[in-house]
Amino acid sequence: MSKPPHNPLLDGKAAPPLLVVISGPSGVGKDSVLNRMRDFSFPFHFVVTATSRAMRPGEIAGFDYHFVTTERFEAMIAADELIEWALVYGQYKGIPKFEVRQAMATGRDVILRINVDGAATVRRIAPEAIFIFLAPASIDELRQRLSMRRTENTHEIETRLAVAASELEQVQHFDYVVINREGHLDEAVSQIRAIISAEKQRVFPRLVNL
């Protein structure tokens, strides 16, 4: 069996682009982590997820999400325009294919922010992606975060916590785990940056084909 090609860094070229999946339970801070990475001007392409849910206060269309109607989202599903999609708490979310392919074709690393089920789908079609599980310091801390954002009632929060407990068991299928402790966002972001930096130095790099 022939070995995969070695890292182009050894020839003075750029390392191949990476596909990085950041996942974890609802309320763990995936959006906050990505926004902080943007604040630091990380040189990545942040794929914008499409969703059928309503825009929340402070969100920006095309930046936080592509906000589309349920009818438009279902048309995207029918046309096979999504890498993965899911119906989450009665609302559609999915990753448009064109954004990922265009970015990687230009040599840029791509960051995907998706739920745990979505990460499993990406793992099947792109096993060479890097899978990072963002976890809370505790379920109690996660409960507090969900309560503070004031977008769900008590019953909805408890439902999300029950799902989160199940999702935490899926960490075994990920490459890395990063704990996003309350008040320590920059620490979590630094750990993710270190993971990506180390992956770029692999002798035999991950090669993603979509």
Provide the CATH topology of the domain at 8-47 and 108-200. Answer: Rossmann fold
Strand order across the largest sheet: 2-7-1-8-9
Helicity, in percent? 25-40%
Give the low-pLDDT segments.
none
Secondary structure category:
alpha/beta
Distance between the termini: 23 Å
Strand content: 15-25%
Shape type: globular
Query: Which CATH-level-2 architecture of the domain at 8-47 and 108-200?
Result: 3-Layer(aba) Sandwich
In short:
Its EC number is 2.7.4.8. With 210 residues, the protein is α/β, with parallel strands linked by helices. It is built from seven helices and nine strands; from the N terminus they run βαβββαββαβαβααβα.
What keywords describe this structure?
210 residues, five-stranded parallel β-sheet, four-stranded mixed β-sheet, 7 helices, globular
Give an account of the 3D structure.
- With 210 residues, the chain is of the alpha/beta class.
- The protein has a domain at 8-47 and 108-200: Rossmann fold (3-Layer(aba) Sandwich).
- It is 38% helix and 20% strand.
- It is built from 7 helices and 9 strands, in the order βαβββαββαβαβααβα.
- It has helices at residues 30-39, 70-78, 97-105, 116-125, 139-149, 154-168, 185-200, and strands spanning 19-23, 44-46, 49-51, 65-67, 82-88, 91-96, 109-113, 130-135, 176-179.
- The strands form 2 sheets. Strands 2-7-1-8-9 form a 5-stranded parallel sheet, with helices on both faces.
- Strand 5 (82-88) and strand 6 form a beta hairpin.
- Helix 5 (139-149) runs antiparallel to helix 6.
- The longest helix is centred in the C-terminal third of the chain and has 16 residues, at 185-200.
- The model has no long low-confidence stretch (mean pLDDT 89).
